[in-house]
Every structure is written in structure tokens, then in C-alpha cells.
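Now for a chain:

_____
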Amino acid sequence: QGIQWTPVEFFDNTIICNLIENSTSGILAMLDEECLRPGVVNEDTFLTKLNQLFANHKHYESKETQNARRVMDTSLPPKCFRIHHYAGKVTYNVTGFIEKNNDLLFRDLSQAMWASRHSLLRSLFPEGDPQKVSLKLPPTAGFQFKSSVALLMKNLYSKNPNYIRCIKPNDTKSAMVFTPELVLGQVRYLGLLENVRVRRAGYAFRQLYGPFLQRYKMLSPRTWPRWAGSDREGTEVLLAHLAYPGEELAFGHTKIFIRSPRTLFDLERRRQERVAQLVVLIQKMFRGWRCRTQYQLMRKSQILISAWFRGHA
């Protein structure tokens, strides 16, 4: 629209997504690699590989990487690593990672479930169909998670989603109880602080010049009842008459932008007051016309009656 815009700095979560689910060097990829590697495999070898791979990553840390950086942190126990997410730090314990990632359903069990006469069981285990037997290794839990997320994102990108963010005021589900720490954490983790910064820097309202002028043109005597110029010129004349601060408005190529909702509410308030005045004016003019019409009819009748009476006399 050609308006002046101030860039808003916000955290790009791409680096965290790549750290976790990069197909070649992410944490989930390293977990799958450890599960498939021959030899002695346990959580210690997995954590050692992560420490070597992400030793210089600014969003990853563990006890070993802290020692290499000469950082003393007693809050991070051994067999754990920590990821610096955009909203805060999250600590993960690697105990059980290998076992849980390999928690697979054996192929013969899937075939046994598929051979059941119960239609629901057959529908739950389609991979047990002998005609669809695959010699590939069954997918790990991490791979299934990535596939599920990818399918979800593909579905979301094909739609026009609208998000409603719900915030719990307390943990006890009690009325009239507000826990500031709990609410602040939810606001931070939902990314609402970044949204607020963008909203403050941006414009709360935007509309094409034509509909805007048509709705509010009665607020200025120069644009009411008819405006002969272009819609943009009429909008500029209207807002200049209303004397709003210049930083509250921005004129694009085809749209008017209003920064603060307060300005929009003031426009609506003035419009309601003006509509009430116009309604009174219309009522006044109609009542005057009706009275004049009735008076003229009575006057004609009186003249006619008088003429006939004088003629009769």
C-alpha cells in the first residue's frame, strides 16, 4: 500500500525446528540413527553424539558443553540436555529415549490383528495386510511424530485457519481467582507478546476508501451530502476536518489505515451522534411538510367554501 512501516523484531523459531527435526542432523534424526546402529547403544552414546554435534549451538546445552564453556550450573543434572526455546529453557532427560523410540509393534502382531474377524480391529491395523507387507524396518516413534506433524502442517496450509488462544487464570478452576505467574507464562509461551508488539506497531483497522467515505461522510459538511471528487480525496478532507493526529492515520494506495482502536471508536461515536441528528432533521422536515400540506388543503377548502357561500348570498 506504500505506507511507511517500522520493522518489528521477533524471534525466528526456524533454528529451533531445525535443531529438533532436521532430516540429517536434527535430534530426532540422531535418535533414529542410534536406534539403527549396531553395537552397544544406550542413552549415554546418544547424549555424547548430541554433545559432539551441537557443541557450538547457542540453543543447546548439556553438562558436558557447559563444562567446555566453563559454565557452572547446578540446575542441569547429568543425562540431560537443555534447549533454549523462544519462550524459555526446557530440560530433557534422555533416560528411556532409545527404548521409547524403538517401542514398535512387531509385524506378526499386526498381521494377527488384521486377520481378526472384527471389522474395527482390521481397520486399526492396515499394515498387517499380507498384500501390503513391507520389508522395510517399521517406523520409529520419532519418525511417526515427524510424519504426523508434516501431515498436520500440510492440512493447515491448505486451509485458512483462525486460532483462538485460551488462557487459564488458575490451576484450581475456581471463579474469581487470578494467578499472575500462571497467566504470564501462558502469554509468553503462546507468543502473545510478539503479537502485541506487532499490533502496536501496525494498524488496527484498514478499509477501502469508498466504503469508508460512504460510512463516515456525514461527519463533515464538505463531504455531506455529496462529494464530487475521488474517494481518497474525500477521505483526506473528512479526516482533516475531524482533526485526528497525523500518526494515527496512514493513506495507502487504495485503503485508509487507522492505528489505534480508540480513533475508530471515536469515529463510530461521532457517527451515531450525527445519525441521531440527521434522523431528527428528517423527522422535522417531514412534520413541517405534513403540516404545510394540511394547512394548504384547509386553506383551499376554506376559500372554496367562502366563494360558494358568497355566491349563494
